[in-house]
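User: Structure please.
Assistant: Input sequence and predicted structure:
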Amino acid sequence: MIGIGIDIGSTAAKAAVLSLGQDAGEKPTLLFTHVEPTGYSSVDASDRLSRALEEAGYDVGAGHVVATGYGRVSVPYAGKVVTEITCHGLGAGWLFGPDGTVVDVGGQDTKVIQLKGGRVGKFAMNDKCAAGTGRFLEVMADRLGVSQGQMSELAAAGVPTKISSMCTVFAESEVIGLVGRGEPKQNIARGVIESVVSRVATLASQAGGGAPYFLTGGLCENAYVVRRLGEALGSPVETCPDARYAGAIGAA
């Protein structure tokens, strides 16, 4: 028996397939993952995921499909929809362990979830402003004319320049002003990442969670951000490449 999870995020749409096994207590096996840019339409993104699953040999009409994420209601072949808080908690628990604090930096929001016994205890969420999210990093990287990976490389060689604005639009204006004054690009990159790390660490304290910390979402392979976030939280942050699929894995 397999479970198929579909996570339609604001930036990326992900699918995961788990072999659920037959014996009680048997840990599922991750069989397949796939990611697509969400693009303009969540419905189109869900169709593209369906085709990718079918090409890999998984029939969405035969399997048990659960949808989650920003566009979860746009998956017509899903038998059930579940909130991303629940799915990210379950997925992170499966990946890392049943107890800890999950930090998910998404495209449009950031979530911090306290896990106890593999279930969600408390959570805090920043969904009112793009500051402290993946979108914030994307906007700032575009303004600096680099990729997000290149921005992290620059930041590692820079000295922090304070980005004080709490709003992405105003923060972008700050960055434009710093560029105009001749501030080195690596210092601005460091300031941008420090701003995100600081906001995420503050959100983590609001959720009341503690170590161990688990990072899910699109930044899980950004080693510099992972390291700086661990330093801000006062404890190493555990992550892995499959952590970007945590929501889809939890749904599956």
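The helical segments are 42-55, 84-96, 134-144, 148-156, 168-180, 185-207, 223-233, 246-251.
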